[in-house]
Known about the structure:
5 strands, globular, 5-stranded parallel sheet
Amino acid sequence: MFADSFVHPQLRNIVIIEPDLGLRQSLTFALEVEGYRVEALDAWRKGHIPATPALCMIIDDNVLRTREDARRYLRDLGQTVILLTDGVGPPVNDNGFILAKPFDGADLLRLVRSLEAAD
């Protein structure tokens, strides 16, 4: 009876890497209100990226433009990434999606829900 409504906890985890405090807080709030567990970081720091599998990572494209090690790590990990970009962002991997700024919170939630439904 409850099996269909059970969602594995790791599939509700989302990592955000966004240098802009206001945007980082807005993203965190919007996702937490919808029941996602969010780990929000202001920068890519090798060794500080959670090892716990996540539904996706939401990353500002400026982070990946300046950190080749981040791009390489994400490619190797195969983690689904939503790239927040002001234009054309750097390639991440085959599991990447681009969300152009400015965007509506509903657009982000729709994309995150589609990822969750696909799992």
